[in-house]
Amino acid sequence: MPLEFELCPGRPIGGDHPCFIIAEIGQNHQGCLETAKQMIRMAKECGVDCAKFQKSELEYKFNKRALERLYTSKHSWGKTYGDHKRYLEFSHEQYKELQKFAQEVGIFFTASGMDEVAVEFLHELNVPFFKVGSSDTNNIPYLEKAAKKNRPMVISSGMQSIEIMREVYNTVKPINSNFCFLQCTSAYPLEPEDANLHVITEYKKEFPDVPIGYSGHETGIAISIAAVAMGAKVLERHVTMDKTWKGNDHQASLEPDELRELVRSIRTVEKAFGSSIKRMLPCEIACHSKLGKSIVAKVMIPAGTLLTLDMMTVKVGEPKGIDPGDIFNVVGKRVMSKVDADETITDDVVENYSKKS
Asked: Which domains can be identified in the chain, with CATH numbers?
């Protein structure tokens, strides 16, 4: 299969296609539907491709004791962890409302299915692709069931080893070839030395038929831009309206101005990729005309003289003469007319001269 596929309708990833940028709203909406809509609109206005949430069916993601555990963090929205998570969890009907709003705004909409039942709901919701969070990447039964839905998949790799990622590849690939891996380190916020962007290069070697991307939890935008420069074809960043809001993820999220600058910078970097063919470009002609150097006669050279290296030098000349790169190509050639000292040597005065290709 080619190293590209359609992640969303009309939006391929991989190959030479632009990086697909995901704004991970997650649960940074504070449990408020209107805030979630505001964040979807913000993501669209910043130029992002997709707004993403996190969907859980809590009794299937956590066991009873985990939900009953007391939760006294300053970020808590309830006395127990279950109360906290229920406060932040949108219902099926609210998800349908958010999806409709995203369609009206004109941005792709999806979510991470945080358990197998949530994946079933997202499949019914007809999201364009499944996002597999790092905590489910080594959940092989989950991966098999999600892959069999035949939707594209974006799979994060936080907390995993290369051996696990090989197992993930071997699990998903025979079922569904339309998936990509994201290099990810599951720390919030992420320190630069733990981003390990070289893993992107290793993934590209290890899985040459899979687009590779990056999911970042660092502060700022520099590391994410570097990831795209290294070949990330999908980029996911958490977003927020205000980093001081209550919640664990806000500090590792981007505010609107940062997100807007990230998108702008990525698109600038992609323009800078340009062509792999090295040649003089039309935009360089003016500089070459002004400062490009030529072969110049160091001394007066009589007509009929065979050129030697010590007769020539290199200067910015007027008019333009033979390119310095051809200086050894003209040694031993005969000049057909006199060339005065400090005059450029032009191709029409050198016998049998042909420009080096």
From this structure: 4-273 (3.20.20.70), 282-349 (3.90.1210.10)
